[in-house]
């Protein structure tokens, strides 16, 4: 057949080639849908690990922001936090960011998105006026004095403790790093695991938070800023000494027999079921503390201790680690190009604070109206109100690669497998400065 | 059919679409990736030409050396394990179970069809140390021994990964090698037996040499698969504890996708490709030598 009809052959060949090229081109061009075409919906990219933001946004869409929702219906998509940065990079590169999204794990990436003109800047707008000063200060520290995010959380961090376990072991509330360290030894010899900390995979920040807090207390509140601007290195002796102190806690077994096997949920569960005395965590965990299903030790049995001062150190205990936690950013093209998206942003800024507080979540927004909150939430509100200077977490000013290197190596540091020097070498090599 | 296959245009029509698709979805991305190795930057900030800077960085990167070493160590151990255990299974099917081997073959092959993530979760639970005690540690405790933090230490985590990936794939290699072993003519085996060859002598002098080509093919399959291991390690240990069980593939993934550094990520991928190429060429050369020895 092919011998006899050369025209037929050419036709078949051309048709086949055209079909393949068409399929190929269709495949190549399929990425751009939904870029700024979100005029029909207010799309929000949430993360699986945070249920509060979708819940509050849904509540707003049904109540305070019902008019905005009618004009531009809310549509929430979710994905794993671990791959959020990757997703945002790809969407940003394709001009396909949703109207709003949970900001990247690495603040550095949001700055990069801003540099590429992809995220809205609320600096000087009415939206910014709804943000309380302490939260705005935290946002500006992270994003070079720009308001690139809406602070849907406002957290302080510190050491939560089980009052009954301390009392049973004859330990009073520590007032200095030295007395805290002594209490670890006392608790350990009494058969109580001193600290609950996650260190499995990327949850190693449960341990690296201790490193960061200790650095701030020994070297002062600008210690990690010096790392990000290159005027100091994590491999400098004073930094490796700090990491070595935490590694020694790990070698002594104070973080438990195997922090590398413990993820975030397990560490929280250990503390809330009375299996460990101390738990360094942000105040976002208070919603779990207030949940009687999860908290088996009782909310009134939990105390809060700001990370204590280290004798002879340049920092002090009133320099509170604070952050805006899981916050949200807006796509610049959606915000600038669509009044309906702007209305949504204004409505969120005006009403999110009270709506979230009803869920037990403290935010960086001013609260319009009175909301009754549990005692632990009140305690956090008081701590926030009383906090003086704020500091960030260990990886706050690192890029994505160094953040990953730090958090994946936190577990081995907390189990004493990695020395402080090796840990700092690994993270420094990923910083690229 | 002969006339169709001798017609160049017919061959073009038959192969053209497939080649075009292959070019679009394989060759072009590969060339694109090769191009990235000479650039730094990101999809957001744009790319700048960097010459051979990424290659120099790979050479000086304190994380790349351990990743290369882990990849080689893993590939060698797991390939040997998969082929040796696969071959032992093939011998078991052929000489001991014979016609009754169908059920055993199906059972041993079963892990091959299980999703990798499911197998990894199974092994995570079996070798769990904390917060619950897994099956293996319960067994050790029953014998009066201390629990072992299998996945929390680099050495033991490597052992668990190796056991899992050998167990998971040996059924496949068992079937593959079985086809080579049953292909050996019965009269050759019978002649050897009449000449007084015992079981081990028969295997060493007849079965292995005659099934050597399929062993080599299985070896190439296995080494290329193990050099490119990703999913099982990602699901079982996530490359940890720390980065102690991070192969080049996982390091490449984290660099390119989590870190957004496509230039350096592509350089790591290129290095892995070169490794696969070198190993395959080395195996082919040694095959050629061995074939001459056996013939």
UniProtKB/TrEMBL annotation, chain A:
<dbReference type="InterPro" id="IPR006059">
    <property type="entry name" value="SBP"/>
</dbReference>
<dbReference type="InterPro" id="IPR050490">
    <property type="entry name" value="Bact_solute-bd_prot1"/>
</dbReference>
<keyword id="KW-0813">Transport</keyword>
<dbReference type="Pfam" id="PF01547">
    <property type="entry name" value="SBP_bac_1"/>
</dbReference>
<comment type="similarity">
    <text>Belongs to the bacterial solute-binding protein 1 family.</text>
</comment>
<feature type="signal peptide">
    <location>
        <begin position="1"/>
        <end position="35"/>
    </location>
</feature>
<dbReference type="InterPro" id="IPR006311">
    <property type="entry name" value="TAT_signal"/>
</dbReference>
<protein>
    <submittedName>
        <fullName>Raffinose/stachyose/melibiose transport system substrate-binding protein</fullName>
    </submittedName>
</protein>
<keyword id="KW-0732">Signal</keyword>
TrEMBL record, chain B:
<keyword id="KW-0472">Membrane</keyword>
<dbReference type="InterPro" id="IPR050809">
    <property type="entry name" value="UgpAE/MalFG_permease"/>
</dbReference>
<feature type="transmembrane region" description="Helical">
    <location>
        <begin position="74"/>
        <end position="96"/>
    </location>
</feature>
<protein>
    <submittedName>
        <fullName>Carbohydrate ABC transporter membrane protein 1, CUT1 family</fullName>
    </submittedName>
</protein>
<dbReference type="InterPro" id="IPR035906">
    <property type="entry name" value="MetI-like_sf"/>
</dbReference>
<dbReference type="GO" id="GO:0055085">
    <property type="term" value="P:transmembrane transport"/>
</dbReference>
<feature type="transmembrane region" description="Helical">
    <location>
        <begin position="202"/>
        <end position="223"/>
    </location>
</feature>
<keyword id="KW-0813">Transport</keyword>
<feature type="domain" description="ABC transmembrane type-1">
    <location>
        <begin position="68"/>
        <end position="283"/>
    </location>
</feature>
<keyword id="KW-1133">Transmembrane helix</keyword>
<dbReference type="GO" id="GO:0005886">
    <property type="term" value="C:plasma membrane"/>
</dbReference>
<dbReference type="InterPro" id="IPR000515">
    <property type="entry name" value="MetI-like"/>
</dbReference>
<feature type="transmembrane region" description="Helical">
    <location>
        <begin position="262"/>
        <end position="284"/>
    </location>
</feature>
<feature type="transmembrane region" description="Helical">
    <location>
        <begin position="12"/>
        <end position="32"/>
    </location>
</feature>
<feature type="transmembrane region" description="Helical">
    <location>
        <begin position="157"/>
        <end position="181"/>
    </location>
</feature>
<keyword id="KW-1003">Cell membrane</keyword>
<feature type="transmembrane region" description="Helical">
    <location>
        <begin position="103"/>
        <end position="123"/>
    </location>
</feature>
<keyword id="KW-0812">Transmembrane</keyword>
<dbReference type="Pfam" id="PF00528">
    <property type="entry name" value="BPD_transp_1"/>
</dbReference>
<comment type="similarity">
    <text>Belongs to the binding-protein-dependent transport system permease family.</text>
</comment>
């Amino acid at each position: 057949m092919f011998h006899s009809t050369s025209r037929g052959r050419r036709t078949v060949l051309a048709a086949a080639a055209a079909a393949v090229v068409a399929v190929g081109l269709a495949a190549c061009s399929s990425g751009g849908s939904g870029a700024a075409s979100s005029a029909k919906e207010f799309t929000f990219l949430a993360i699986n690990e945070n249920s509060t933001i979708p819940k509050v946004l849904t509540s707003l869409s049904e109540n305070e922001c019902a008019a905005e929702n009618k004009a531009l219906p809310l549509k929430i998509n979710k994905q794993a936090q671990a791959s959020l940065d990757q997703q945002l990079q790809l969407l940003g590169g394709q001009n396909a960011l949703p109207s709003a999204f949970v900001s990247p794990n690495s603040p550095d990436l949001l700055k990069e998105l801003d540099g590429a003109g992809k995220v809205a800047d609320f600096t000087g707008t009415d939206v910014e006026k709804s943000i309380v000063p302490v939260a705005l200060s935290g946002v500006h520290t992270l994003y070079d004095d720009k308001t690139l995010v809406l602070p849907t959380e406002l957290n302080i961090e510190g050491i939560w403790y089980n009052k009954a376990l301390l009392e049973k072991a004859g330990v009073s509330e520590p007032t200095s790093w030295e007395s805290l360290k002594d209490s670890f030894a006392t608790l350990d010899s009494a058969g109580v695991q001193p600290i609950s900390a996650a260190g499995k995979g990327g949850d190693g920040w449960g341990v690296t938070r201790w490193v960061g807090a200790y650095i701030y207390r020994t070297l002062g509140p600008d210690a990690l800023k010096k790392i990000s601007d290159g005027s100091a290195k994590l491999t400098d002796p004073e930094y490796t000494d700090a990491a070595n102190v935490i590694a020694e806690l790990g070698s002594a077994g104070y973080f438990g027999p195997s922090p590398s096997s413990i993820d975030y949920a397990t560490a929280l569960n250990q503390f809330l079921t009375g299996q460990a005395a101390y738990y360094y965590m942000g105040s976002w965990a208070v919603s779990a503390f207030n949940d009687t299903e999860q908290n088996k030790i009782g909310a009134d049995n939990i105390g809060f201790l700001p990370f204590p001062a280290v004798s002879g150190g340049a920092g002090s205990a009133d320099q509170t680690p604070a952050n805006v936690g899981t916050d949200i950013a807006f796509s610049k093209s959606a915000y600038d190009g669509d009044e309906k998206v702007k209305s949504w942003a204004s409505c969120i800024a005006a009403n999110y604070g009270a709506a979230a507080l009803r869920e037990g979540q403290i935010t960086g927004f001013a609260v319009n109206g009175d909301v009754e909150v549990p005692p632990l939430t009140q305690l956090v509100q008081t701590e926030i109100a009383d906090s003086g200077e704020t500091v960030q977490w260990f990886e706050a000013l690192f890029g994505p690669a160094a953040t990953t290197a730090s958090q994946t190596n936190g577990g081995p540091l907390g189990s004493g497998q990695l020395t402080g020097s090796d840990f700092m070498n690994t993270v420094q090599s990923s910083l690229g400065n | 059919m002969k006339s169709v296959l001798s017609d160049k245009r017919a061959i073009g029509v038959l192969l053209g679409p497939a080649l075009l698709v292959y070019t679009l979805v394989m060759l072009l991305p590969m060339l694109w990736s090769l191009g990235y190795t000479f650039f730094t930057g990101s999809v957001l900030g744009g790319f700048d030409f960097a010459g051979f800077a990424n290659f120099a960085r790979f050479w000086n990167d304190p994380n790349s050396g351990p990743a290369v070493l882990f990849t080689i160590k893993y590939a060698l151990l797991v390939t040997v394990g998969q082929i040796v255990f696969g071959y032992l299974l093939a011998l078991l099917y052929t000489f001991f179970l014979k016609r009754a081997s169908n059920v055993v073959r199906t059972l041993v092959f079963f892990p091959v069809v299980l999703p990798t993530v499911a197998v990894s979760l199974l092994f995570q639970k079996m070798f769990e140390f904390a917060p619950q005690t897994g099956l293996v540690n319960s067994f050790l405790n029953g014998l009066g021994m201390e629990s072992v933090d299998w996945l929390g230490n680099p050495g033991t985590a490597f052992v668990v990964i190796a056991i899992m990936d050998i167990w998971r794939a040996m059924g496949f290699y068992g079937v593959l090698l079985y086809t080579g072993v049953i292909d050996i003519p019965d009269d050759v085996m019978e002649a050897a037996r009449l000449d007084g060859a015992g079981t081990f002598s028969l295997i060493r002098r007849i079965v292995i040499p005659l099934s050597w080509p399929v062993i080599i093919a299985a070896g190439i399959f296995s080494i290329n698969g193990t050099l490119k291991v990703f999913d099982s390690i990602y699901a079982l240990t996530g490359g940890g504890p720390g980065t102690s069980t991070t192969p080049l593939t996982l390091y490449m993934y984290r660099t390119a996708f989590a870190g957004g550094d496509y230039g350096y990520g592509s350089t790591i991928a290129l290095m892995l490709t070169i490794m696969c190429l070198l190993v395959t060429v080395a195996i082919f050369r040694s095959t050629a030598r061995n074939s001459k020895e056996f013939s």
